[in-house]
Amino acid sequence: MTYCLAISVDDGLVFASDSRTNAGVDYVATYSKMTRFVFENNRVLVLLTSGSLATSQAVVNAIKRDLNDPNAEFDISQGEYLHEVAQYIGTLSQNEQRLHAKAIEKSNASTESSFILGGQIEGQGCDIFLIYPQGNFISASAETPYLQIGESKYGKPILDRIISAELSLSDAARCAAISLDSTMRSNVSVGPPIELALHKQDVIEDPAHIVLSANSSDFQSLQNQWNEGMKLAFNQLPRLDWDKYNA
Predict the structure, then answer these.
(1) Using CB atoms within 10 A of its CB, is residue 240 exposed (0-12), middle (13-18) or buried (19+)?
(2) pTM over 0.85, yes/no
């Protein structure tokens, strides 16, 4: 399991991902689930992955293969619109799943992976897409300006309360970090280090990128202040009038 998140605000895009791919009593593995592609003066793309690690890695490898193949029918540096790149990634995912379908069926396992693709093509606005295991995809909306894959339910409440188009990139990144922290506290299959990337609207260059380990002072400070802030807010809630309800 994993948890990845992309947020769209007026100033640009925020991407966040954990790094745990397996959790158990005797085995924990960590892999980066964020891949960044920058094509100077053309486009910035960020890809987040969730689900079957084998399928996710095969898709990323196929993307890199096509980029290095002058005879490839399509690669992510092409396409007039970002949704064409999303369609291409969905096709790669479907091809990889079909390749191993019979063997996987016998073992009762799953080859399904989900992806979040986000970024900007020069001259166009920023966008983010959630690409389903079936190859189809959706984009974020003004009403819900974020997309999640993996273990999404624990980190969703803060997004619904805080995220809005007017939020700054920095504040959206802090919200993403707390969303990940909330998920890690409730599900051991999601874990550090976490990666954050910020793409500023109309800046076609490598997004700002940081990795926060469990021992990172910045991450620990964020966690501690959030915990104390929630306790303070809880203690300041109005008391219920039990006599009124028991009358």
Answers:
(1) exposed
(2) yes
